[in-house]
């Protein structure tokens, strides 16, 4: 099972809007559903991905609930 950290993205809003720099938190997605249960998206369709090491280094970038589920914090 692959775990992917991504900010929540919405296909219709990606054009002309930089959703990733709007301060959105990164969530941990497994099977296209975030571990906190708040978001679902086709993670394969987006190139944005941060390495879990970066999340560990900067947990303030990530959703607290997802961090807990993953066991980082
Ligand atoms: Zn989350």
Descriptive report:
With 73 residues, the protein is α+β, with helices and mostly antiparallel strands. It has one domain. The protein has two helices and three strands, in the order βββαα. The chain has helices spanning 52-57, 64-70; strands at 3-6, 27-30, 33-34. It has a three-stranded antiparallel β-sheet with strand order 1-2-3, with helices on one face. Strand 2 (27-30) and strand 3 form a beta hairpin. 22% of the residues are buried. The model has no long low-confidence stretch (mean pLDDT 82). It binds zinc ion.
Overview features:
73 residues; alpha+beta; three-stranded antiparallel beta sheet; 2 helices; 3 strands; globular; binds zinc ion
Write the layout of secondary structure elements.
Elements: E1 3-6, E2 27-30, E3 33-34, H1 52-57, H2 64-70
Antiparallel strand pairs: 1-2, 2-3
Q: Summary?
A:
The chain has 73 residues and is α+β, with helices and mostly antiparallel strands.
Small molecules bound: zinc ion
**How many β-strand runs?**
3
Give the distance, in angstroms, between the N- and C-terminal Cα atoms.
Answer: 21 Å
Shape: globular
Low-confidence stretches: none
Strand order of the largest sheet: 1-2-3
Structural class given helices, strands, pairing?
A: alpha+beta
Q: Give the helix level as a range of percent.
A: 10-25%
Largest sheet, in brief, is: 3 strands, antiparallel
Mean pLDDT: 82
Q: What order do the helices and strands follow? A: EEEHH
Number of domains: 1
**Percent of residues in beta strands:** 5-15%
SS field, number of helical segments = 2
Q: What integer value in Å does the Rg equal?
A: 12 Å
């Amino acid at each position: 099972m692959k775990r992917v950290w991504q900010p929540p993205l919405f296909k219709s809003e990606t054009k002309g809007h930089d959703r990733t720099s709007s301060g959105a938190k990164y969530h941990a997605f497994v099977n296209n559903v975030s571990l906190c249960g708040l978001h679902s998206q086709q993670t394969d369709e987006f190139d944005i991905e941060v390495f879990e090491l970066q999340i560990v280094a900067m947990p303030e970038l990530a959703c607290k609930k997802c961090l807990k589920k993953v066991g980082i914090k």
